[in-house]
Amino acid sequence: MKEPGLASRLLGCALVLACLPGLLSAQPRKKNAPPAEPGGPAVTPEEAANLEAVVTTEAGVIRFEFLIGVAPKHVQQFVQLARSGYYDGSAFHRVIARGLIQGGDPLLKDPKTLRARWGTGGLSQIADEFSAAKHERGTVSTVRIPGRANSGGAQFFMCASPQPALDGQYSVFGLITEGLEVVDKISLVPADDKQFTETPVKIVSVKIEPKKTEPFKDATADDMRKEVLLRTSLGDITLALDPDLAPEHVRNFLKLVETGWYDRTAFHRIVPKFVIQGGVGATREGQKSHPADKWVRNVKGEFSPRKHIRGSLSMARADDPNSAMTSFFIVLAPAPNLDNKYTIFGKVVDGFDTLDKFEALQLDVEAPRERVELIEAVIKP
């Protein structure tokens, strides 16, 4: 999206259709009247704070959590409508390439709906809840008729890129946690000069589920006394984790393993008689983002007198001692220069022959000439 203002103008162009006589699908409603369509059971703000939406489309699944503190009435309405099946069978009908996608019009449930009426249903249902929330990549916001107060309703749009021109003009109520690549894909489907899709992208269903919780967030040391199997393209390596030595690093590592964050990444650095290093998301094959990215954060250093010897499992970091995140390394020979500077949180207990294979690889400086993949990391039962 090269020109931020373009999204605002195009969205406005789309919705001005709803202002034309005879094009609204529903009978005129009183100002701020509730939706005429059937709704599901009422939801309290406290309940909504622990829920998320699962939008299953022909192009893939998108999940987003609700910003209940930003637009509580919009969240409550969306949950009610979704639970009633209101969105099932509708579609995303308007797109701006790598800008945004618009959907949720109940008229799109009927394949015979005239193209001129796309985007005109489900409006003027709810009062505006404008806020300081920004339309960043992943923002979910409510469609409204430009220039008409309290004209938002069931339709919504999702941002594939920042849209600052829309800030303060539309009610932000959600943030995508999984499936941004699906939003990108939908935004790129063929469309006409008015940004109507040539063929609407079907919304199979919108379900409301409990919000996913961060794995191992509240785990005790006994809960984290685990072994992890690394299945690599050169063979298996088994790691024993030590939560007594570095509980937060173990918690972080188990979280990433449990969610599959490390799967299909690569070992990008090999220094014979020193270390092998992996665990960088940018090395992941295919889509670089991952649903667990939202739980990736810096981990405070947990240094100890433990020595870096062959088989030690430790965390890579930047200059800041509290900057470890996902990248880990396995030591191939005693490395006293690393002691008390990098956090050891486990060790290799099986697979030393696989480490030998790593050291035998041909390298370009420190990068292996052939891709060495971490196919899968799993917690052993």
Overview of this protein structure:
- It is a single chain.
- This protein has 381 residues and is of the alpha+beta class.
- It folds into two domains: 207 residues, Cyclophilin, CATH 2.40.100; 158 residues, Beta Barrel (Cyclophilin), CATH 2.40.100.10.
- Helices cover 15% and strands 27% of the residues.
- The chain is built from six helices and 19 strands.
- Strands 11-19-9-10-16-14-15-13-12 form a nine-stranded antiparallel beta sheet. An eight-stranded antiparallel beta barrel has the order 1-2-7-5-6-4-3-8. Strands 17-18 form a two-stranded antiparallel ribbon.
- A hairpin with a 2-residue loop joins strand 9 and strand 10.
- The longest helix has 12 residues.
- The relative contact order is 0.13.
